[in-house]
Design brief:
heterodimer, A: 139 residues, mainly alpha, 2 domains, 5 helices, B: 202 residues, 9 helices
Chain lengths: 139, 202
């Protein structure tokens, strides 16, 4: 083997070891962090209706959220002030872009409020907490 | 990209899952794993019929793997002409043939980043297609069953599963690269020692 090629191969192996080590450390730390978060959560019992509105994401559509939280989609469309027709397939971010281009994140916040307002109070004996929906800017 | 695909999976369902897994198996970085985990969760939420989603997804992934194996197979002559005389290529070919089964199986679900190179090498090194398919079906079934199953189990909290599996996959990839480099370094050390001993004996 010519010395130059041997040196090049040595450099390649050293680079491989270093890159491997860096990737291992980087993803190892992230995996550990993810595992910690993972351990803190338990799978929801089957048939449980979702109540945590923080799980709502920009890519979701209104019918999807309606099914996930068992809230009629008309309630959500009403809260948004948007007609359901031609909007069922659109994600929240697309609805926001189309109807409320000047208010970033308005649609997702409005949906969260509508779901919370529609959910039954957690303890029937306690005083009901009123959740005021944010004011709807003109589309 | 993934977010756009998730919206479309909600709208178009199982056929799109098949298409995404097909394109993912061809090497397009479109986030097939996130779709598998999310599809499991959508199955639990009643959005998708999960057995159908799993079958169509598996069919798409197998079709994509077959096609990428075929690409390697038809590029075989060109590769052979270019590297056929190289001892390193011949040794890599022999080495792959010895460990091909494990490589094909593990790159379907554990080190998914190496799935495409593995398919191309398998096709290009003349690995038997029927044997490739056996390991491919086993690995892809485990991938869809494990990732989709975890998505199904965790339902609306599937993002936690995705976060962990992505980083764990990266960790394994890092260990594979590190292990490969270390093995090469140790081989050289061994060769040098043997050469020195031979010189001393002479």
């Amino acid at each position: 083997m010519p010395p130059k090629s041997k040196t090049q191969q040595r450099i390649l192996v050293i680079v491989l070891v270093l890159i491997g080590l860096l990737i291992t450390i980087f993803f190892g730390m992230r995996a550990l962090h993810a595992l910690r978060r993972f351990n803190g959560h338990h799978p929801p019992p089957p048939g449980k209706v979702e109540t945590d509105v923080e799980l709502i994401r920009d890519w979701m559509t209104v019918p999807f959220i309606s099914r996930m939280y068992r809230v009629p989609d008309e309630v959500i469309f009403d809260a948004l002030g948007i007609p359901p027709k031609n909007n069922r397939d659109k994600s929240l971010v697309d609805l926001n872009r189309e109807y409320y281009p000047d208010t970033d994140g308005f649609v997702i916040e409005q949906v969260k409020s509508a779901i919370l307002a529609h959910q039954p109070a957690p303890q029937p004996a306690s005083a009901p907490t009123a959740i005021s929906a944010p004011s709807v800017p003109a589309p | 990209m993934s977010e756009f695909l998730l919206t479309q999976v909600i709208n178009y369902g199982n056929p799109l899952i098949g298409l995404i897994l097909f394109l993912g198996a061809l090497g397009l970085p479109i986030g097939a794993s996130v779709v598998v985990i999310a599809a499991g969760a959508f199955g639990q939420q009643g959005i998708l019929n999960w057995p159908t989603a799993a079958l169509i997804g598996l069919a798409g992934a197998l079709l994509g793997d077959t096609l990428s194996f075929g690409m390697g197979y038809y590029a075989k002559d060109a590769v052979q002409n270019r590297f056929g005389k190289s001892p390193a290529w011949r040794s890599a070919r022999v080495s792959f043939q010895q460990r091909a089964g494990a490589a094909i199986f593990l790159t379907r679900w554990l080190v998914t980043a190496l799935a495409i190179p593995t398919n191309l090498i398998a096709g290009g090194s003349g690995y038997k297609f029927s044997r490739f398919m056996i390991y491919d079906i086993a690995g892809e079934t485990l991938w869809i069953g494990l990732y989709g199953g975890l998505g199904y189990l965790f339902g609306s909290q599937w993002e936690l599963v995705y976060d962990f599996t992505t980083n764990f996959g990266g960790l394994i990839l890092g260990l594979v690269i590190f292990g490969f480099g270390l093995r090469q370094a140790l081989n050289w050390q061994k060769q040098n020692r043997t050469r020195r001993n031979q010189k001393a004996e002479a």
